[in-house]
Amino acid sequence: MTEDKEGGRHVFDPENWQRLESPQRRERMNPVKLAEAMGLAGDEVVLDIGCGTGYFAEPVAERCGRLIGIDHSEDMLNVFRGKESFGKLTNVELKLGDAMAPPVDDGSCDIVFHACLLHEIKDAAAFHRDIKRVLKPGGRLYSVDWHARDTGGMGPPVDHRVSQETAMEWMRRDGFKDVEALEIYDDQYVIVGRV
Question: How far apart are CA 75 and CA 188, in angstroms?
Answer without folding.
Answer: 25
